[in-house]
Amino acid sequence: MDTSSKENIQLFCKSSMQPVGQSSFKTEYSSSKEKQRCCGKLKVFLGALSFVYFAKALAEGYLKSTITQIERRFDIPSSLVGVIDGSFEIGNLLVITFVSYFGAKLHRPKIIGTGCLIMGVGTLLIAMPQFFMQQYRYEKYSPFSNSTLSLSPCLLESDSQLPLSIIEKSQSKRTDGCVQTVAIIGPIFGFLLGSLCAKLYVDIGFVNLDHVTITPKDPQWVGAWWLGYLIAGIVSLLAALPFWCLPKSLPRPRSREDSNSSSEKFKFIMDDHTDYQTPLGEKSKIMEMARDFLPSLKNLFGNPLYLLYLCASTVQFNSLFGMVTYKPKYIEQQYGQSSSKANFVIGLINIPAVAFGIFSGGIVMKKFRISVYGAAKLYLGSSVLGYLLFLSLFALGCENSDVAGLTVSYQGTKPVSYHERALFSDCNSRCKCSETKWDPVCGENGITYASACLAGCQTSTRSGKTLIFYNCTCVGIAASKSGNSSGMVGRCQKDNGCPKMFLYFLVISVITSYTLSLGGIPGYILLLRCIKPQFKSFALGIYTLAIRVLAGIPAPVYFGILIDTSCLKWGFKRCGRRGSCRLYDSNAFRHIYLGLTVMLGTVSIFLSIAVLFTLKKNCVSKHRSFRTKTEGTMVSTRIRKENCTTSDHLLQPNYWPGKETQL
Predict the structure, then answer these.
(1) Domain boundary among 476, 493, 510
(2) Both 551 and 479 in a single domain?
(3) pLDDT at residue 415, as a whole number
(4) Does 643 fall in a domain?
(5) Taking the mean position of all CA atoms in its chain, how far away is CA 562?
(6) Sequence-ordered list of residues with C-beta below 8 angstroms from that of 644, at least 6 positions apart, any chain
(7) How many domains is the chain built from?
(8) Are residue 65 and residue 203 in the same domain, yes or no?
């Protein structure tokens, strides 16, 4: 065909196909417009979902930061505080399994919005006791805020009615790594908010702060624990608003309809007609979905890899939940830091290390394209290295403070055993002191006394919020560098080496947090790839349920029960019942807190090893079956080729018997 004819054909095609070209152009334009609209709504959904993660994590992080404040405010032991912390997860028991199963088939945005509303109202309810209870009452010696009046604590406590009347008078005044990282940012703000609220007096706005005679460094100080719950509740309510404006699902963009490599975020919110709709295109009925619930559950637990990973994660989260819940308390008791500083350190140093570790794990998985087996090895390696580093914290503790009658004798020369602990001595026998009272006084000799009365102090003076005691007989009998027998309100500081130990603790804690969180994304990928696609939503729901029921609820409780066994001095309520612990044995507290964490981590490591061997076994068996199938296919292909060659040879028109012999 010559060139002119080709040009004519091309011109004809252009003229004849012009309308079709216009329609295809319109189709492409509408498709791109639809794609932009779809992507816009998807970005709104992901942004709203990230904000929900932030709101939920903010409330959870703030709850952890208020543990010690709630314990002092309501005068309760750590075990009961653990029950309160664990009850934060109880609401999930009622709905999480069914939401994860039916949520994949119903209007997901509205379900998420309803959950946010319930979460917001519940968070607001946590703060309600502050508005229905009487004001916080702490023990103090004098009702005068600015006075140089000389009082005798020793004689003051011999009269049981005077302190009570004084107190009552004064108190009448971008990828899945991106959403998870956003969820980690929530606790950062939660702990920082907890640090801020811990500096504010609990009854701020209800009393005249000029009449408050204690400071945030005082062991009786209680911060405004309730204020953060109001803020977190409002944030949760605001997070619910966008989901009521989103459709049930988004149409799949045409450019992605035939794509087999569409990302998980599109599969999550787009329509999928193959699994969840009947052949007629009608909506699945609730009863039909309910019939598939038990078979789906059986299918999940019949997967040994999923079951082992579930057990390993549950045990590991037991150690992590217990460790995080009582970490502020551990810093306060072990290193003598204030509640505000403990929350500030955790929020500003530890949790960012966790976020960076999770993000780094996702980057490593993506950049090096690590397989499922490699993800399992990375998950195991991070756990082993993290808990090995955690062991070094046993050596970074501080010794007990010198407390007369509890950790040292009143002479300050020797430690006392459990049976020898006695708050009374000859130096305070005439004072008729209360054994249950805990308003510590630091003597000039560096020894802390449970109260000024038990220190045998005869006189006191106050200037503003500073209260100084003089002529303390018990302080005088112990060796004193200055020779004075005076004291001030508050505990004595820990030994000089404790600040350095605290610095080392922070460094090791940050490295450990980063190392443990490095395996977060690999473990999550392992979870997703060990189950069938149609069971992903249900499997994640069961996983979350198991973590919350078997780790989130019990871990704070039994951690708190064991921590209470290290208490040296219990407080008592006005009704006579036992209250919160005033002083812990630092060594026992350290061994219980760190030992329990490491023990649970070791169990999770052995379960992770079992996961790795199971995965390797499955990979080997699949490789063998694939190899057998491949070899069988090659043999059948070779036989088929030989048969085809023979038949073709016989079908040649010039072929006759004996041709090869003659040739």
Answers:
(1) 493
(2) no
(3) 74
(4) no
(5) 21
(6) none
(7) 3
(8) yes
Q: What is the dihedral of CA 194, 199, 205, 211, to 10 degrees?
A: 150
- End-to-end C-alpha distance for the chain, whole angstroms: 45
d(CA 558, CA 556): 6
Cα–Cα dist 623/629, whole Å: 10
Q: Where does a domain end: 211, 232, 249?
A: 249
Q: What mean pLDDT value characterizes the chain? A: 77
How confident is residue 547, by pLDDT bands cut at 50, 70 and 90? very high
Q: Which one, of 339, 222, 325, lies nearest residue 562 by Cα?
A: 325
Task: Please report the pLDDT score of residue 382 as a whole number.
Answer: 96
Any domain includes 435:
yes
* DSSP-derived 3-state class of residue 443: strand
Q: What is the pLDDT of residue 384?
A: 96
Distance, CA of 30 to CA of 604 (rounded, Å): 53
Summarize the confidence of residues 328-346 as an average pLDDT. Answer: 92
441 membership: H or E segment, kind and range: strand 441-443
Q: Specify whether the CB–CB gap between 255 and 75 falls below 8 A.
A: no
H/E segment holding residue 627: helix 586-650
Between β-strands 459-463 and 567-572, what pairing exists: parallel, antiparallel or unpaired? unpaired
- Give phi and psi for 365, each to the nearest 5: -60, -40
pLDDT in tens, 483-520: 568 888 888 888 778 989 999 999 999 999 999 999 99
SS3 559: helix
pTM, full prediction = 0.78
Question: Is residue 448 situated within a structural domain?
Answer: yes
In whole angstroms, give the CA distance from residue 519 to residue 516.
6
- Predicted confidence at residue 25, as pLDDT, reads 43
Q: Is there a single domain that holds both residue 122 and residue 217?
A: yes
Judge contact between 67 and 328, C-beta under 8 A: yes
Do 530 and 613 share a structural domain?
A: yes
Q: How far apart are CA 54 and CA 58, in angstroms?
A: 6
- Judge if 94 and 223 occupy the same domain: yes
The span from the CA of 498 to the CA of 504, in Å, is 10
**Is 24 a domain residue?**
no
Specify whether 561 is located in the same domain as 438: no
Structural domain for 610, as ranges: 295-398+494-630
The type of residue at 596 is: L
- Which is more confidently placed, 512 or 185? 512
Range from 151-155, 444-448, 474-478 carrying the lowest mean pLDDT: 151-155
What is the C-alpha separation between 19 and 421, in angstroms, rounded?
Answer: 99
pLDDT the model gives residue 564: 93
Is residue 460 located within the same domain as residue 531? no
Q: How far apart, in Å, are the Cα atoms of 332 and each of 61, 79, 338, 583?
A: 17, 17, 6, 11
Mean pLDDT, residues 425-445: 85
**CATH code of 375's domain:** 1.20.1250.20
Closest CA to 456 of 433, 439, 472: 472
The per-residue pLDDT for range 264-314, each reduced to its tens digit, is 444 444 444 444 444 444 445 566 666 777 888 888 899 999 999 999 999
Angle between helices 372-391 and 351-367 (to 10 degrees): 150
Sign of torsion, CA 265 551 526 602? positive
Q: Which of 243, 229, 47 is nearest to 120 (CA)?
A: 229
Instruction: Name residue 571's amino acid.
Output: G
369 and 448 within one domain: no
Q: What is the DSSP letter of 548?
A: I
